């Protein structure tokens, strides 16, 4: 009978000490700041002990664990290092200088993980009753995307579909802004054509948001069938071909002089309205 390898304290030799920025492993991790290296390696960097532990618990594959020398010996760090080793990951004990260089900031998190990227394919998605999916047309701003993934998680959105040329969900800035929700919310990447074709057979209502939408977003029946909410690009809004594919084009009323809401804010308003009938304060929330 095969068994999971027993988790044990990492032995000397399984943890590499690194102090130099010239170390090739450190160079590879630092290169993950660039999309082409994330794409080529299929990995990304996430920061923070709590986040790394949660990701491991959710079954994400940790390729490399980096922790600062200053936290060596802390029970939680030892535990996560043992776990990384047991699952075939590499563990680096790094100087503060190396940790700051990897995080590209002062006062970095003391623990970071390089994880394998994970995307869901559109073909696997069959929206079920009471499910809300969120589709984003060419979202460009990493902070917006991270905030949206975090908000989607909080509101119980089933997953986020990235339509067209979107900012990379695995960039450091986006991952930071998700505050760990990147490990919880399934992400899909697709083209506008494939999205429209999928939506036609998905059984879900496609509710687009548009500054010229004729329908007040509060008057839509979100509980009749699964819903896909479609949000437009920050600069251009929804293109004609996507707007045409929508069952409804909703607008959030505005009173002041602002032309529009920020994309992440508009998304927050929409997902909470679409899921209003499903959300309630309960134990632990
Ligand atoms: N100049 C863009 C335009 O003309 O659509 C503004 C885009 S807005 C910053 C980004 C996206 O947020 C929009 O495409 C839409 O999805 C959503 N949005 C922002 N304000 C909205 C509103 N009042 N009603 C409906 N959607 C809104």
TrEMBL record:
SUPFAM superfamilies: alpha/beta knot, L30e-like. GO terms for cellular component: cytoplasm. GO terms for biological process: methylation; RNA processing. Keywords: Methyltransferase, Transferase. Residues 45-121 form the RNA 2-O ribose methyltransferase substrate binding domain. Pfam families: MRM3-like_sub_bind, SpoU_methylase. GO terms for molecular function: RNA binding; RNA methyltransferase activity. Belongs to the class IV-like SAM-binding methyltransferase superfamily. RNA methyltransferase TrmH family. This is RNA methyltransferase.
């Amino acid at each position: 009978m095969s068994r999971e390898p027993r988790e044990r304290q990492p032995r000397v030799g399984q943890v590499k000490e690194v102090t130099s920025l010239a170390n090739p492993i450190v160079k590879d991790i630092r290169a993950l700041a660039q999309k082409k290296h994330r794409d080529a390696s299929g990995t990304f960097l996430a920061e923070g002990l709590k986040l790394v532990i949660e990701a491991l618990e959710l079954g994400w594959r940790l390729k490399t664990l980096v922790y600062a020398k200053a936290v060596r010996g802390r029970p939680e760090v030892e535990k996560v290092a043992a776990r990384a080793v047991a699952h075939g990951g590499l563990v680096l004990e790094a100087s503060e200088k190396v940790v700051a260089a990897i995080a590209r900031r002062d006062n970095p998190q003391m623990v970071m993980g390089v994880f394998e990227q994970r995307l869901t394919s559109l073909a696997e998605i069959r929206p079920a009753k009471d499910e809300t999916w969120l589709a984003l047309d060419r979202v460009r701003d990493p902070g917006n995307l991270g905030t949206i993934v975090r908000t989607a998680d909080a509101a119980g959105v089933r997953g986020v579909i990235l339509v067209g040329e979107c900012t990379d969900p695995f960039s450091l800035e986006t991952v930071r802004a998700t505050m760990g929700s990147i490990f919880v919310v399934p992400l899909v990447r697709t083209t506008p054509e494939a999205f429209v074709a999928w939506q036609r057979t998905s059984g879900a209502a496609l509710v687009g948001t548009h500054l010229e939408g004729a329908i007040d977003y509060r008057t839509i029946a979100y509980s009749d069938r699964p819903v896909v909410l479609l949000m437009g690009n920050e600069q251009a809004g929804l293109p004609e071909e996507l707007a045409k594919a929508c069952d409804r084009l909703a607008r959030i009323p505005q009173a002041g002089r602002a032309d529009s809401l920020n994309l992440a804010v508009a998304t927050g308003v929409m997902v909470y309205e679409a899921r209003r009938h499903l959300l309630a304060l309960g134990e632990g929330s």
